UniProtKB/TrEMBL annotation:
PROSITE patterns: ACYLPHOSPHATASE_2, ACYLPHOSPHATASE_3. The lineage of its organism: Bacteria, Bacillati, Actinomycetota, Actinomycetes, Propionibacteriales. Residues 3-88 form the Acylphosphatase-like domain. It is an enzyme of class 3 (hydrolase). It comes from the Bacteria. The keyword Hydrolase applies. The active site is at residues 18, 36. Its EC number is 3.6.1.7. Belongs to the acylphosphatase family. Keywords: Hydrolase. The keyword Lipoprotein does not apply. This is acylphosphatase.
Length: 88
């Protein structure tokens, strides 16, 4: 299992980024959460098999069609074996 904390910067609020991330995570079988931050970035935690997490991270680096990702910061965390994915 792999668990990561992610901060995505760019045009990532108001473009469906969080909801699209939830769909990408659910399709990949990844659990965790995603939320907007006051500074205009999006923050998430993802947990799943390494290949599944990597697939969602690759999607997050591109984002939805209306967005524009400038940077993605990823930090590994201890696993918790969480279940489900939520938009906060």
């Amino acid at each position: 299992m792999r668990r990561v904390h992610v901060v995505v910067r760019g045009l990532v609020q108001g473009v469906g980024y969080r909801w699209s991330t939830r769909i990408a995570a659910e399709q990949a079988g990844v659990s965790g959460w995603v939320r907007n931050r006051a500074d205009g970035s999006v923050e998430a935690e993802l947990e799943g098999e390494p290949a599944q997490v990597d697939a969602v991270l690759a999607w997050m680096a591109e984002g939805p069609p209306g967005g524009q990702v400038e940077s993605v910061d990823v930090r590994d965390l201890a696993t918790t074996e969480s279940h489900g994915f939520t938009v906060r």
